[in-house]
Design a protein that fits this description.
By secondary structure, the chain is of the alpha/beta class. The protein folds into three domains: 234 residues, Phosphoenolpyruvate-binding domains (TIM Barrel); 77 residues, Beta Barrel (M1 Pyruvate Kinase, Domain 3); 130 residues, 3-Layer(aba) Sandwich (Pyruvate Kinase, Chain: A, domain 1), CATH 3.40.1380. Helices cover 37% and strands 22% of the residues. α1 packs across α2, α1 runs parallel beside α12 and α10 packs across α12. The protein is elongated.
């Protein structure tokens, strides 16, 4: 593996039973994974501790910063159980949901969530089992709801409940989530994904609990989150297009358009965006994907997503390494496509009226005009790296930072190749260090130009105000420490 990935979009691989041991996690990284996700819906604290330790060991072996994303479960709404484990619901029949804690039948089932009955309205829809069964509310009281079965079928124990027409009076973070979050933060995780966000207050609660110790990613999977998208983007550090639940909560034919909307709005705000769920689903049990899945991955890359994610494919599938390698190959091929640059450039947002945006936009323009080999940005807080990535330049971006946690967070961001290094002490050291690292990391050859951005005074977070053009090739630049 070369030190620098030969692609800009990042790959997130979920760890699970198929990818628990050190050897497999290292193989996934070398196959192309940049960030590893740990899903707390299926992980204990012991699992989390072990997996983070494994990732950090791979980080030591490969000498590359690797991001750890912990995905909180969020509030899970589920029905009760049936005597035989399942019943069949016929379309047109009446079906009751209630608070009676006993086994259900073809006419009723326990729904142990009194908060739902507080806000249900007549005519609202209730979806069971990922939308496979649809109910319409006819009447509701404080302890039950009478519904009509619109789409029927077999309903089994403990299936999930979705309410696309209803905003629930519950917070996105449960007590389990808080315990999982505290444990994850004690291990030094880098990103926290918050599930089932309904309104901006959910993010405020999470950000207060995180207290700056990790970056916060908002999972967009509820219609109410779409209604508050601007505020959610402002309060988060990144977005995840969680297409699984989103495709249940909104009409499935709306999901592709919503994906494009979320990708573009996040980029405009300079926040990374992840496209997730069922990207190479068939590779759970097959060594090769379907053509439709390859097109799905390609579409996310063409749209300029920062990262694309594997879930069960790498966590529980039979071919985790092959799935990562396939996603890597598809991304590489898209980024080499003749149409790729024109699509990215057409979606470029306007620069904001700040010195940081002016410098990063100028760096891209100068790199394109001069045919520079790469852009090198010094970043302490990560903000300069994010602004550079927002420009989606056609050359590699090296993000140099003295802060290990920032390097790990930026591993998820489009185009950024993060390198840990000390801050520059003066302008000469800034140039020499940038040229030497660009050469060592394969981002520039002798005699090529690099574009350097930094903030003066050095080490001041968010103070990008300097652009420098430099040539790589002076022996002192390439050998001094």
């Amino acid at each position: 593996m070369t030190r620098r990935r030969q692609r800009s979009v990042k790959i997130i691989a979920t760890l699970g039973p198929s990818s628990n041991d050190l050897d497999m996690v290292e193989r996934l990284f070398r196959a192309g994974a940049d960030v590893f996700r740990i899903n707390m819906s299926h992980s204990s604290h012991e699992d989390l501790t072990s997996r983070v330790a494994t990732i950090r060991e791979v980080e030591k072996r490969t000498e590359r910063p690797i991001g750890v994303l912990v995905d909180l479960q969020g509030p899970k709404l589920r029905i009760g159980k049936f005597p035989e484990g399942r019943v069949n619901l016929a379309p047109g029949n009446t079906f009751h949901l209630d608070l009676q804690n006993k086994l259900g039948d073809e006419k009723r089932v326990h729904l142990p969530h009194p908060e739902i009955f507080e806000v249900l309205e007549n005519g609202a829809h209730i979806l069971l089992d990922d939308g496979r069964i649809r109910l319409r509310v006819d009447t509701r009281e404080h302890d039950h709801a009478k519904t009509t079965v619109i789409y029927g079928g077999t309903l089994s124990d403990r299936k999930g409940v979705n309410l696309p027409d209803t905003v629930l009076p519950v917070r996105a973070m449960t007590e389990k989530d808080r315990a999982d979050l505290d444990h994850g933060l004690s291990l030094g995780i880098d990103w926290v994904a918050l599930s089932f966000i309904q309104h901006p207050d959910d993010l405020a609660d999470a950000r207060k609990a995180i207290a700056g110790r990790a970056a916060l990613m908002a999972k967009i999977e509820k219609p109410s989150a779409l209604d508050h998208l601007d505020e959610i983007i402002e309060l988060s550090d990144g977005l995840m297009v969680a297409r699984g639940d989103l495709g249940v909560e909104v009409p499935i034919e709306d999901v592709p358009g919503r994906q494009k909307q979320l990708t573009r709005q996040a980029r405009a705000a300079g926040k990374p965006v992840v496209v997730a769920t069922q990207m190479l689903e068939s590779m759970i049990s097959s060594p090769s994907p379907t053509r439709a899945e390859v097109s799905d991955v390609a579409t996310a890359v063409f749209e300029g997503a920062d990262a694309i994610m594997l879930s069960a494919e790498s966590a529980a599938g039979q071919y985790p390494e092959e799935a990562v390698a396939m996603m890597h190959r598809v991304a590489r091929r898209v980024e080499d496509d003749v149409n790729y640059r024109s699509i990215l450039d057409a979606q470029r947002p306007s620069a904001e009226a700040t010195s940081a945006d002016a410098i990063t936009e100028a760096a891209r323009q100068v790199a394109e005009t001069l045919g520079a080999a790469s852009i090198v940005c010094y970043t302490n807080s990560g903000s300069t790296g994010l602004r550079a990535a927002r420009e989606r330049p056609g050359v590699p971006i090296l993000a140099l930072t003295p802060v290990e946690q920032i390097a790990r967070r930026l591993a998820l961001v489009w185009g950024l190749h993060c390198v840990l290094t000390e801050d520059a002490v003066d302008l000469d050291d800034m140039v020499d260090r940038a040229c030497r690292i660009a050469f060592q990391e394969g981002a520039a050859e002798r005699g090529e130009r690099v574009i350097i951005t930094a903030g003066v005074p050095f080490g001041t977070p968010g103070a990008t105000n300097l652009l420098r053009i430099a040539y790589v090739g002076d022996r002192r630049q390439l050998t001094s420490d």
